[in-house]
Amino acid sequence: MPRQGARILKNDTGDIALFRTVNDEVFAVRDACPHSGGPLSQGIVHGRRVTCPLHNWVIDLASGEAQAPDEGCAGTYPVRVEAGRVFLGKKTARSAGA
């Protein structure tokens, strides 16, 4: 996965966007902006955030939360990277309703 890039993991419960930051941090977020469902995986990664390509909402990759003044949560998944492989956990309790 390229730095400041994303990949999509498709599954039966909805797509998950995997993001890699310039500092090699990896995050997993539901691939739908909380505003109107835009594909976050097609957004621009900057720092630990992604900007939705539809209406420019900024989403924090660690929490999935929209940044002020916008409100909402995309939902996140725990991630660990071992030997270049990405492992996802189940949705966090906070994002279970997302």
Q: SS-based structural class?
A: mainly beta
Topology pattern, helix = H, strand = E = EEEEEEEEE
The rounded distance between the terminal residues' Cα atoms is 25 Å
The radius of gyration is 12 Å
Largest sheet, in brief, is: 4 strands, antiparallel
Instruction: List unreliable stretches of 5+ residues.
Output: none
List the total number of helices. 0
Q: What's the CATH class, please?
A: Mainly Beta
Estimate nothing, just give the exact number of structural domains: 1
Helix content: under 10%
Going by CATH, the homologous superfamily would be Rieske [2Fe-2S] iron-sulphur domain
Could you give a quick summary of the protein structure above?
The protein is mainly beta. The chain is built from no helices and 9 strands.
Question: Could you explain the architecture of this structure?
Answer:
- There is one protein chain.
- By secondary structure, the chain is mainly β.
- It has one domain: Rieske [2Fe-2S] iron-sulphur domain (Rieske Iron-sulfur Protein).
- The protein is 0% helix and 35% strand.
- The protein has no helices and 9 strands.
- The chain has strands at residues 5-9, 16-20, 26-30, 44-46, 49-51, 58-60, 76-77, 79-82, 85-88.
- The strands form 3 sheets. Strands 1-2-3-7 form a 4-stranded antiparallel β-sheet, with no helix packed on it. It has a 3-stranded antiparallel β-sheet with strand order 4-5-6, with no helix packed on it.
- A hairpin with a 6-residue loop joins β5 and β6.
- The mean pLDDT is 91.
